[in-house]
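Notes from the pairing session

We agreed to fold both candidates in a single pass and log them together. This is the raw record for the first candidate, unedited. Please don't reformat it; downstream parsing expects exactly this layout.

Candidate A
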Amino acid sequence: MTDRTEPYADDYRIALLRERLAVDGQAELGVRVERRGGVVLLSGTVPNATRRDEILELARTTLSGCVVRTEVAVAGRDAPDHGEELP
């Protein structure tokens, strides 16, 4: 027999992670957290690698036991080192 309460517990933890991201010191509203089948997907863009690492650690602790896939990118703020060539 399958335990039907477990998906609800995962939904609760996903909602908790979303809330923590929204009220955290640097409110990361650009990071999306969604369930896709049996996987939780984190996607979006953050200002730096340190912030990405903080978010991933928060996800690991909040969603322990869940399969988490991350597609969180770091926004580049450096000036380009060459011109863009258009076809």
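Candidate B (folded immediately after A)
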Amino acid sequence: MPMPFTETHDRQPVVAGQFYTNDADALLTEVTGYISQAQPKDEARTILAMAPHAGYYYSGVIAGVTLGQANLAETVLLLGPNHTGLGKPFAVWPDGRWLYPGGALHVDAELAALLCEKEPQLTPDTLAHQREHSLEVMVPFLAALNPDTRIVPISVSHPSLDTLLSVGKTIGRTLRGFERPVSILVSSDMSHFVAHELAKEQDSQALDPALHLDPVRFFETVRAGNISMCGVLPMTVGIAAALELGATQTEITAYATSGQVNGELRRVVGYAGMLAS
């Protein structure tokens, strides 16, 4: 089914120079430095990964060791939260390229079109992504790992558990039948603006059902506990999709809070990395 667009859409980086340097050489050096701290790459194909999207000064190491250990397919489905409130509740960037300082990753337009065909909730929409940072900050890491990576960015803001589960299952079934292997990368930070010890406690509560690949208990734990994890919606979708793709093994690759970086322990943001295969 053709996309309802007549031209391709390139996305310019909007948080280069803020969340990460806009100097191409320095960016590559920084990102490869984070990735070099990873454990040896997993042998099993990564079905689902989760990595944080704060400024690299705070969360770059967590993202680097997670994605460096991941065994990602050459096509990566990106799921991220919508911080801006713009655009559709399941907004798919349909085609073109996502630029970053020093290069660009191509969007897998074939897979984007197929997903929108199989799941009516998934809608071609660039507005939700135009000022959103959560997926942009993943791009330099993916490019450093494999510059031929193709991506399908999806911004998720739909609040209904039933809908999130349904869309996740359809995504998983679609990826399972797709001609090329696809990994899923969820972009999410954990607790926001609470004390360090409380963040560790709340984030542990949220990560436990995620590690057990239980999307219902994960969603309900985060909501009932008022845990301010910004990526609860895309991660619920991601876990549901990963189950359809046969994921059984999970691990936390790293965890830290911003307080461990800047010394301010009274008001922190939590960062976690997770892999499932």
